[in-house]
Design goal:
4 helices; alpha+beta; single chain; binds methionine sulfoxide; 6-stranded antiparallel β-sheet
Length: 155
């Protein structure tokens, strides 16, 4: 049976909740989400978290990811990830090569969505970065699905 994207997000959200139910370690939680997301959606070329560096609070450092080698550090305001962290909002870029602020880690990445992750006090703790090798791969269904999944990361 082929499920539509919305249904896939709903099913995946249930699976993530079930798998993470008793797990309190954040690396385990981030890694599990990255694994399940990248296995579910064939247009996710690079899927991973950039975490706020607790020693440099205006810089992101690479966290758990699946895909080709990612940049290790991204200052706030730089690239799509750094901009999302600075603005604390989800960004969808339909063609990264027409976006001047984009940091190119892999020429195969053509479009991108970045979703901020907040703790219980609404402090930013990370961003979820998903790149696709297809142009214009992400829409409002991805945005709401990924924002919901990111909201489940913190317990
Ligand atoms: N594309 C990102 C950089 C990170 S990598 O693509 C993994 C950006 O511009 O924020």
């Amino acid at each position: 049976m082929t499920y539509d994207k919305q249904t896939k997000y709903e099913n995946l959200t249930k699976e993530i909740n079930a798998v993470l139910k008793n797990e309190t370690n954040m690396i385990a939680r981030y890694s599990t989400v990255v694994c399940l997301l990248s296995r579910e959606f064939d247009y996710f070329y690079w899927t991973g978290f950039y975490l706020i560096d607790q020693k440099k609070l205006n810089e992101l450092v690479i966290g758990p990811y699946q895909g080709t080698l990612g940049c290790l550090r991204i200052p706030f305001g730089k690239g799509v990830c750094g901009l999302s962290a600075e603005l604390k909002k989800t960004l969808i870029i339909s063609d990264v090569h027409n976006f001047t602020n984009h940091i190119s880690c892999d020429v195969n990445s053509k479009s991108e969505i970045v979703v901020p992750v907040f703790d219980k006090n609404r402090n930013l703790i990370a961003v979820l970065d998903v790149d696709s090798s297809k142009l214009d791969a992400f829409d409002e269904v991805d945005k709401s699905g990924l924002e919901h999944i990111c909201s489940l990361l913190v317990f």
